[in-house]
Amino acid sequence: MATAPRPRTSTREPEEIAQRLTAWLGRTLPGAKAVDVTVPESNGMSSETLLFDIEHPRAPVRACALRLAADPSAYTIFPVYDMPRQYRTMRLAAERTGIPVPRVLWLEEDHGPLGAPFFVMERVAGRVPPDVMPYTYEGNWLHAATDAERERLEGASIGVLARLHDGVPAAEADFLALPGDGSPLRRHVEAQRAYYAWVVDRRPRSPLIESAFDRLEELWPRDEGDAVLNWGDARIGNIIYDGFAPAAVLDWEMAALAPREVDLGWTVYLHRFFQDLTESFGQSGLPDFLRRDRVEARYAELTGHTPRDMDFHTLYAALRHAVVMLRVAYRQAHFGEVAVPADPDTLILHHGSLRAMVQGSYWDDLA
After folding, report:
1. Tens-place pLDDT, residues 165-195
2. Whether 71 is catalytic
3. C-alpha to C-alpha distance for 61 and 56, rounded to whole angstroms
């Protein structure tokens, strides 16, 4: 996935969306026009993003980005896209923590204007560690940075998580509590089970993913810890940087109430995903960047909370990522871009590392 051409993500026509956006903006801010409407090449695999400028003498900002719920006819990555929930989460995180969340301007819940709910936010300038080709590959700006620059970026990025987790009282984020019974962690995992069941409905099941769920039960933490506001997709590829400092924290659709380590495990594993991929193509990557021990130590220094049960939480991150990747692969099959193999586990690009985590040898192999 990270090296191949990006799979299809929408059936929408950009020109039509641009016309409809201009009409909506004119009603929302009379006399305003949406100009220079573009779809970024780095558009996400789930919700869609449009970039545009507002032409109006009293525009709250000029440069904007629009997050549009996924196209229902495009074999969506997630079953539900709750744009009001994302909008509310971003406002709460910005107001209570001071982390650089883009200013949100308008929320549109009506499907009429663009065919799905959306919100508009301020567009922040800067640069993002790329997924394609991954930032661990030679030739991109983060790989070319000095060790000191990368260390500065790493520390500041972990600082975003520390400020988020410490800054929002759980009571104010209770709208992010997942449904079901049991603890926040139990409900989080059960929501992933339900998501996996949705992904494999009328599709081949994954023995590897199911074995990972079984392994989670064996590793279940004795002390799960308190639930905090989790960003959800907590990785540096969702941060815009000004130099090596975070300027905007993006992509809040997976936010939830969960233990701190759910975010930390995702941060650690998503880097390992790109690092392992890079090494498989014969490059050294960035083996000393976002190391698990460094992330844990820095987070403990900033918060006073020493991360616990990280074997569980990194496995959980790899499992969650595997379910998403399986859905992406099945969407490619839906559009005729790939054929489903006899062994569906091979559709999971990191099936080798996930299997090693299930077997308990992954982190030992890195020692």
Report:
1. 999 999 999 999 999 999 999 999 999 999 9
2. no
3. 9
Cα dihedral 118, 74, 191, 208 in deg (nearest 10): -150
Structural domains present in the chain? 14-122 (3.30.200.20), 141-366 (3.90.1200.10)
Q: Which two tokens stand for residue 114?
A: 């663009």
CB within 8 A of 347, min separation 6: which ones? 325, 326, 329, 330, 338, 340, 341
Q: What is the CA radius of gyration of the chain?
A: 20
272 touches 129 (CB < 8 A): no
CA-to-CA dists, residue 247 to 100, 201, 241, angstroms? 6, 40, 5
- Which residue among 53, 201, 223, 233 is the active-site one? 233
Q: CA-to-CA distance for 267 and 184, rounded, in angstroms?
A: 19
C-alpha distances out from residue 166 to 55, 159, 197, 256, 304, Å: 39, 10, 33, 15, 10
Bridge partners, 54 (sequence order): 34
Helix (H) or strand (E) holding 349: none
pTM, entire model: 0.94
Backbone angles phi, psi at 248, to 5 degrees: -160, 130
